[in-house]
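Late entry, written up from scratch paper. The run itself happened at the end of the previous shift, but nothing got recorded in the book at the time, so transcribing now.
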Amino acid sequence: MKILAIESSCDETAAAVVEDGLTVHSSIISSQIEEHKKFGGVVPEIASRRHCENILDVVKCSLDEANCTLADIDAFAVTYAPGLIGALLVGTNFAKGLAMATGKPLIPVHHIAGHIAANYLTDSTLKPPYLCLVASGGHSHIIEVSDYTKYHVIGRTRDDAAGEAFDKAARVLGFPYPGGVYIDKAAQQGDPKTYPLPHPKVAGNEYDFSFSGLKTAVINIAHNAEQKGETINKNDLAASFQQTVAEILTQKTIAAAKEYGYKIVALAGGVSANSSVRGMLKSECEKNGFKLYMPRLNLCGDNSAMIGCQAYYDYLAGRRADESLNAVATLSLDDISC
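Output as recorded:
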């Protein structure tokens, strides 16, 4: 079964042709990073306009790379939630048009479920049930994956997501957007013990995250040094910040795995490309006898291959949409389990 999948939840316009959930025949991504870089972050209105301009060519290129026509496609899939509402609407309406014009099924895919599915494309031996840490620019979740389409969120961020904190800390340190990759590079040259940083805690759920206080601590260190005429070591502060984020994500994930009885742990989302997060989670999983799965680096960020993969399992579970499908800016995985 060949699925043409579309992803436009943020600032990447992407399309892919995926067969039977695991074989990727094409994966095309048109990134807007260079345009948004001058603003220090994604401007939603600009992102939506660029999706409108790029989506037709991206879909055509994906079909061409897969050596397919629309007649060869068995179903269409699209990220309909969560994300920037204007950006989601472009992909959702384009996919609806393709489905209506061809009379073929339309499969709505949750963005976070897609990130989780990137692990299946990396290693097909991964099978539910398992525990997954999803960390990205907009999300930080600890999720029970009981089946390919059944999820339960046991921890989530109360404020900033991990990736958002990376971007904001990077801005204070003078690094370009997106900041995560620049902090990671700087951290390789720094000492993570130089700046003691807090591990924020939240009441009510020990597995929820809060990165706002950590981000603020970095901002205060930089501003206080500036006011005193002192120079901070950017590499050391980047290393300290990255180490702290990795510790928070890892400690809560390992603790959740122990309490809920999981021996299999997965990592997903844009922050899963971070070297400290990958390294620390791998080390702790090995210490505790857990099997860890991580997506290939080219599957960590937003892409349509992961959407096409998840769409296959959603299709098998009977998940379909019609012309009434609408984009949804905020939607929990708990609300879409089949």
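The radius of gyration is 20 Å.
(Scratch paper discarded after transcription.)
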